[in-house]
Records
---
Amino acid sequence: MQVVITAVGPDNRGLADPIVHHVATAGANLAEIQMYDHDAERLFAMLLRLDWPAERGPVAALRARMDEIGREKGLSIRTWSRDEHAARPPRLALCTTYRAEPPLAVLRAIRDRRLRATPAVVIGNRPNCRAVAEAFGLDWHHVGDAQGNPDNEKMVELFDRYEVDYVVLARYMRLIPPSTCWKYSGGRIINLHHGLLPAFPGPQPYQDAYSRRMLTYGATVHFIVPELDAGGQIIHQDTFTVGPGTPLAEIVRVGTTDHEPCCLVEGLRRVVEREVELHFHRVVPAARKSAS
């Protein structure tokens, strides 16, 4: 059973040892270890991906032991496995800012059984998408102040409270802090970027492409990793073309109302159906995961 353990907390000596010792002595196969130790930030973070032997007990027992270590060492530890609840669809947290089209497309795809997932909660740093959540009978949480600055700790608390498997940034227009990225690392945060990566990063990809007289535009669905521009995390991309002289406003309209939402749904489908996974900050076909 594949399990991902993440640990985040103030830097100190010997933080990784009890975690690694416990899973190794239990006979787990360690497939991936990543650690971050930044003296300037005094932050320790670790990701551990392993194959947990079922005969050593359920994931819940492993989680309980990791929680004990977390309390002893002052770490925020999460023990997650898609295989633990294989009989139920994965649970999603939809994070939004202004645009309602992306979360609406995801919720419609779930309703129409084109996407096998469960929407657990809708979260916004702006109130714009509250009506979308209410229309589908979902809990809504507004986590932004008057300027849209999010309460990142509140978001983490909500992700845990609703027991989400994946965090979906459905045109969520704020950066996720590194500590949050580490807490849900290993391919649990999925972002919709409204431009083609790596050519057009940043907040205005339509305008950037238009200034270069591009006739092809698109969107990118990718995993989020703690490094802002690490590369290699693209899950899905799709494009559309326009004729010469097409006004920028029309390009943006086509992209935001139709193209981006469809791209997000397809990217999510690839993840929830386990066609792809993130290993060592690279997207790999799930069938090849044992080779990573």
Note: Helices lie at 17-25, 59-73, 101-111, 130-135, 152-161, 178-183, 205-211, 248-272.
---
Amino acid sequence: MQDFTSRRIVWRSQPLEITITRNSPNVSEKNTNKPKEKNRRDYAGILPKKGWPRRNYHFLRHRLLPQAFQKRNGSSKAPIPHPPEAGKIRVTWIGHAAFLVQFPDHSVIIDPNWAQWHGIVKRQRQPGLDLNLMPLVDLVLVTHAHFDHLHKKSLKVLESHEGIVVPKGSGSLVKRLGFHSVHEMSVWDTLQFGDLTVTHTPSHHWGARYLHDTHRDYGGYMVHSGVCKVFHCGDSSYFEGFKEIGKHHTPDVALMPIGAYDAPSGRDVHMNPEEAVQAFIEMEAGILIPMHYGTFPLGNEPFHEPAERLIAEATRLGVADRVLILEEGVGVEVECLAETKT
């Protein structure tokens, strides 16, 4: 087995003190504005909608079969080894929903996925970063148990100081993947590792990896270090929860899904580009970086449509200058807003 310690970049050597706050979005228990626990209204369910045979036939014929014979585009690069300057965040899109997020004093990897195939679904673009060159980070975060977000083979290679964070009910899936600590979180729980803070935010989706394990939770993460804050939405359709998130957090960067909205099942499980812009505005975020498009064909929408619709809607609403469409493997630095909400 390859010795990874010789090529890992370590930014600190001392373990961080870990604290957890259960179901509290940075407000006291007496605060009447505290968000309610996520309930079944935010659960998308697993049953397909009427017309699913026709939609699945279209998906098979016009998406899955053609993509199986297409050559993958893109190339893998080495991550930038040094941290960004004070007051900035560096975000590198690996592909799909996977990101390396580097703060001046910390770094995290979210939803790492280097898979070339998911069943019969072929990856269309190479991962932006070389898995064998990934740095030793503070935390690995997984938003939910779906195969395109919790990829075990990728997780087995990655290493982190403080282990892995998963939603409640998914700890059993990662406990044998080599992480010394597994942290399960419920919605609105907050984990603090020194001055690195992670809050598990709600979404409208579902968390089952198969069909019988609907007990698994799902959501996104607000990751906060110093004056910098990044929001990773996870998978979600549009719902009122984005307004609730925006009441308590002002992310400098919002990583928002914009693809797979024309689901073969017909279920309301992924937001479209217009809804991603709406959610971004409601959270009063600084920069929108799209994800969950262009890597794996998971919906019936045309391959290039999500990004085109995103730019059109952002232009219509006057926020096009706050949208960054990243190329896989290219790190982009964003200046932090230094704003907080309580």
Note: DSSP finds six helices and 16 strands in the chain.
